[in-house]
């Protein structure tokens, strides 16, 4: 008969997963708010990594508040994107949760957004054709979220 492993040993043996929460935040013209971090060569949707003990929706809310100075309710889950681990670069698998942050008038965004100077170089409202600024994976994720918002499907689990 096999002995049970102590919890710590068992849990250390399981695959690690990095999770994140991000949002689709639109203006009244359907443009999507994207941000240019100073630590990446491409733009991103507002969001970030889930902290210990935090769920992905709370993470998305916190990140929007920290990065943009906006305290917005975070709505429904639009999609979950799964990324396999990449052993050659040491990256564990990932689960990226995308939420609806609603529609905020462009004039309010222009007046109220305060980009986090330590992380962001810029932000903009992007038309759907400009979402390629997010890179291939980010653009696909944003377009998938918009498709759900336009009624094309329900919450979806997407592989890369």
UniProtKB/TrEMBL annotation:
What would be one Pfam family of this protein? NUDIX
Q: Which cofactor does it need?
A: Mg(2+)
Q: Single GO molecular-function term?
A: hydrolase activity
Keywords in UniProt for this one? Hydrolase, Magnesium
Q: Which InterPro entries match?
A: Nudix_hydrolase, NUDIX_hydrolase-like_dom_sf, NUDIX_hydrolase_CS, NUDIX_hydrolase_dom
Keyword set includes rRNA-binding: no
Could you identify this protein by its name?
Answer: NUDIX hydrolase
